[in-house]
Amino acid sequence: MRLRKMLFVTVLILCSLAVGLEMDRAASAAADSQTPVTEEVTDSQRFFDTALRSGSQPADPSPEVASLLARMTLEEKIGQMTQLEIGMISTGKGTNTRIDPAKLEKAIIKYGVGSIINVADGCFTIDQWHDIIRQIQESAQKTRLKIPVLYGIDSIHGVNYASGSTLFPQEIGMAATWNPELMKRASEITAIETRACGIPWNFSPVLDLGRQPLWPRFYETFGEDPYLAKVMGVASVRGYEGDNIAAKNHVAVSLKHFLGYSFPLTGKDRSPAWIPENYLREYFVPTFQAAIAAGAHTIMVNSGDINGVPVHTSHFLLTELLRNELGFRGMVVSDWQDIQKLVTEHRVAATEKEATRLAILAGIDMSMVPSDYSFSDIMVALVKEGAIPQSRIDEAVSRILKLKVELGLFSSPLPDATLKSKFGTAESRAVSLQAARESITLLKNVDNLLPLAKGGKVLVTGPTADSLVSLNNGWSYTWQGTSQELYPKDRLTIRGAIEEKAGKQNVRYVQGTSLDKEVNIAEADEAARGANVVIVCVGEGAYAETPGNIEDLTLGDAQLKLADAVAAAGKPVILVLVEGRPRIISRIADHARAIVMAYNPGNEGGQAIADVLFGDYNPGGKLPFTYPRKANGLLPYDHKPYELRDTSYGNMASTPQFEFGFGLSYTTFAYSDLLVQPKAASIGSAIKVSITVKNTGKRAGNESVQLYVNDLVASIAPPGKRLRRFAKVHLEPGQSKTLLFTLTSNDLSFIGAQNKPIVEPGDFDVMIGGQTQRFTLSQAP
């Protein structure tokens, strides 16, 4: 109980940081007098600009790197370009994994392997991690040049593969907070816990844009909008890398996955995408461009192909665009076995040797081989034959060595035991709880059914109601996240948190169904008739990458049948959606009096959901994607206006279940006095926008103010609106704030027919909170 009280106090302290808009005395006085406070708030763009100023591009290779490179043999250089998985140096599986001295010697001493990564089911304690990393680095010290090994791990929403780590909401849930400061803090915690394991390199954040909801990695994205994803992505990079990646509380990032991975035509993982270049630049480049400007040190490559060209062979994408145009100076690593897959899957090369030549010349610096020594042997032959120039090898290896120098591995390759005290702390857990609370999005609340009183009889049912696995999804302790035994025993599921909140005597739990099969729906139906309210928890289990492929976004029939059955009992039904992508619920949405979107909120999600359901936390999350109503109604919010229209033939326009940016609260907010100045401006001028927001309800709440711009006429058919600014504000009952934003020409530009950004004169609408003001842009004199 004392720990819970300490955590609660800590959360209260962190709330002001998470919201980023602490009320001062002037704001309190304004609330009392009903006079709006005018603020230059820390909106999305100010945060973004500050983050970019604090970041810096990776440095040029130092004399130390040049000297070391000059002393290396060809075989040693190619060893540095080789990345193997831990199974190549170990025996056993899962928690029983142990370093095999003979395998380790072959990898490090004979082949000089430069990097090792984790896989599948190896979840270790922090002490096990220290032992593994120590043995690897001690082996590296026995080599001729004593070059340390670079270990990488997928800390996607907290440290994966490490027991006791702090897990946060998945990226899609973090995007729903609309709070880049909170994203930065979560990444800082993940960075120090990753370093505490002795690991300096994190394969995160995912900067692919979530515009294809079928894609099984959708939950790893920051949603469908490039501006929101850009701001949140930069926040994550700055949190991970800090001002110095050699510091023991920071790690190097690997931006994933350059480029276009998240938009496969079929929705299946690692499958072809068809993306015109102007669309690629408009939607998929901005997140990476911003993160590169923020100082990101490494990039991982898309496993798929774009317009028939595998990205791993694209000199245009990996060299001309990434390096020459975007200015990236860090290291590029392939994804899992993707050079070999150029032969076995893409079939653009007849042999692995030819595939290797294509990939290295395109711009790959390090090959995630990862389970044999073929890359090393082939590369030696290619260089000796003159098929790959020595200069390309030196270029790649200098980037790898430079990264190791910048990470401080040459001076301090071993784990720091003092960091163990920073791992899995109560303070970090409190931040995770706050993130889960801020992510939860209230989508429906008929007649203010929520929040619930704590004295009524509650039925809790559904396959995600009693599952930490569903709350977390993939990349949780293992690759797939399905190992229930690895989850902490002291974290509450939704069921457990509701029982604690409402009193176990007032709560009945009936599973109803598994994720895809009926279990005891009839019992759930009977129990519903004796309850005051029914909470139906539906959604998904855990999956990562290709195992998460599905054919249809529609929620499984067994779960739909359960919701139908308990609704027939005539009691108020609350749907709680625990899912990594928007599963179609149109069949049951109308029956529900309230709908709560929880995403994958992490281990603290059960507590956070119960806090929202029973009113101990006022929800303020907003959807970072468009929630479709029908399986083929997958239009994003920034569609062309003519894409949603009725026709004279009787065809009715498809409308989403819930709009991008939507989310309710237990209070209400009113927008007024939108002002855009000047009303006529020339290209290059700043446009000032102000809006007043008032809390018109009876309890304090957070509101994510969203500014959209609509270009009325353009040479490329314009979308109906595009997000260009946002700010999260905290308002007490009756309090008003007037927010000020500044738009620049960049916010009015688009990628034109020549695949370059352009700004055209004409009329533009600024839209905030249901209000619209127009201004006219003219050519500069």
Considering the chains and any ligands shown, give keywords for the structure:
781 residues; alpha/beta; Rossmann fold; eight-stranded parallel sheet; six-stranded mixed sheet
Helix content: 25-40%
Count of discrete structural domains: 3
| Gross morphology | globular
Rg, rounded, reads 26 Å
Briefly note the structural class of the backbone: alpha/beta
The fraction of residues in strands falls at: 15-25%
Instruction: Please name the CATH topology of the largest domain.
Output: TIM Barrel
Instruction: Identify the CATH homologous superfamily of the largest domain.
Output: Glycoside hydrolase, family 3, N-terminal domain
Which residue ranges are poorly predicted, with pLDDT under 50 across at least 5 consecutive positions?
A: 1-33
Instruction: Tell me the span between the first and last alpha carbons.
Output: 69 Å
